[in-house]
Amino acid sequence: MKIELDLETLTEDPASRRQASFGNRVYRTLKQAIVQLQLRPGNSLSEADVARKLGVSRQPVREAFIKLADVGLVQVRPQRGTFVELISRKEVENARFIREAIEVALVRKAALEASPASIDAFKGLLRRQEAAAAAGQHSEFLQLDERFHEAIADSVDCRRAWLVVEDLKVQMDRVRFLSLPAATPMATLVAQHADIVAAIEAHDPDAAAAAMSGHLREILTSLPRIAEDFSDLFDD
């Protein structure tokens, strides 16, 4: 299997890159490669091959495999090897359900507490998302989408809640990548984010909660079609 991985071309926020440990950057590189289907469900992974490709020792790769297994992206089979997990509709739906509960609570809090500076930051991310959508930059758009949701948690000083969501949402991320742009147009997602920001700015927690709930349920509309179109990537 040819593995296209490179720590230096990883498209993550520069601030995040500076803050991350080297081992965590290996994990993020592999996670992004799995989410964006450079490493497809069912592919086998070799510690030695990945270490050689990334120019690192096998230890950070081994640690990354363990963390990827913890979040359900790879499966380590004794005596057989490590494999990228197939996508499970059930796990995607469960992850979405839990994520909605957490993020609706966060956006309610943001509608009551977010500062004008935080709201300006949300709007700045929206403008960048619009630009990425117009340019057809899917990977960049998904990075900004994640940063938007993270910024809401940060605006109300709930970093721990975001870390829980970050681990949960990997079950959704591969489906989200597959859903762009055909099943869920990026313009639709930008409009949903705009509704969330408008409700926060209006200090309307009920409207903010409804907008976030509707946004996070978008995947339920596209999931059946995606599972049918890419049946070889799903285990159910």
TrEMBL record:
Q: Does the keyword Nucleus apply?
A: no
InterPro entries for this protein: GntR_C, TF_FadR/GntR_C, Tscrpt_reg_HTH_GntR, WH-like_DNA-bd_sf, WH_DNA-bd_sf
Could you give a GO molecular-function term held by this entry? Answer: DNA binding
- Keyword Transcription found: yes
Ranges where the HTH gntR-type domain occurs: 20-87
Q: Name one Pfam family in it.
A: GntR
Determine the domain of life of the protein's source. Bacteria
Question: What are the protein's UniProt keywords?
Answer: DNA-binding, Transcription, Transcription regulation
Q: What is this protein called?
A: GntR-family transcriptional regulator
